[in-house]
Amino acid sequence: MYELVAQRAAALALVEPVGQQDEPVPVVVQATYVAWEVARYD
Question: Is the whole-model pTM more than 0.70?
Fold first, then answer.
């Protein structure tokens, strides 16, 4: 389960355009939050 989340987070980070790094909530933070949610309910 953790590997799948990590792979998905990595994929999102790679796909995320450089021009959108100025978003209020960076993709890394979103991915970390998603991983934490999954781990909490796992």
Answer: no
